[in-house]
Amino acid sequence: MPEPITEQGQRVLTLWQGSWVAAFAVGILVWGLIVWSVIFHRKRSEQLPPQVRYNMPIEALYTVLPIVIIAVLFYFTARDQTALLSTEEEADTDVEVVAFQWSWQFNYQDQSKAEAEEQGSEPQTRFSVAGTPENKPTLVLREGDVVHFDLTSPDVIHSFWIPAFTFKMDVIPHQDNEFQVKVKEGTAGTYAGRCAELCGVDHSRMLFTLKVMEPEDYDAWVEKQEAKAQEEQQETAEQLESGAEDPGTGIDLPGPEGEGPEEEVAEEDTPADEETPADEANAPVAAGEEAGR
Known about the structure:
293 residues, alpha+beta, Immunoglobulin-like, five-stranded mixed sheet, 7 helices, 40% helix, Cyt_c_oxidase_su2, translocase, metal-binding
């Protein structure tokens, strides 16, 4: 198993190991009884051995023992699931994960969707990182942070999976899922991420990279991304003031089965025999265009 880089991942690993210990214990008991029966109760003559029916102690054991095993496994699973899905701790970083056919967009926001709903507002995107099947996006996190993820999809079911988290969660259209992790200290490095749900022809290309940075490096990266987003927002505002067409107008996340704003842009602004990069990759709004809204 990969070494978990989150506190929640360590809990998953412990549950997995405990389940295998229980499975091996049951297996050893069952195979031991089988071997014992084969050796000590093999056929020795044609005489029919004594027939014993309705052995109540053994039948009670057959009933009670599986119930006890299942109850114990259920208890630890329910306990750990409750802890893994808890979002009560205040997050240091809020990221909206948008999975689409066939790549990812990571929107760094000022608060989670749940917090915004409680305040009757909408979360504001500070900056975004978007990818295409040809160019994998990079999700950057700071070690030691509590990170809140909001998961959403505009088309089909995907699954957000970082093996180093030892945890994955489905990204379902019209149903926002969420979870939190606490990134361990001393885990700075690069890790793989991918979609774990068969979502279409280019499912295997839905890859991304997770980069965990030390606090100083992460803060410098965030400052750079925010400055870049502000510059692009200012350029968009100047274009609008001068009467130029907003490059982001009419472009939105792709809809189910190719429906939605992406299709309209292709019909109105693009010749039928020519595809734009956005149409070819079904990519969502770029960071600057999202910030420009």
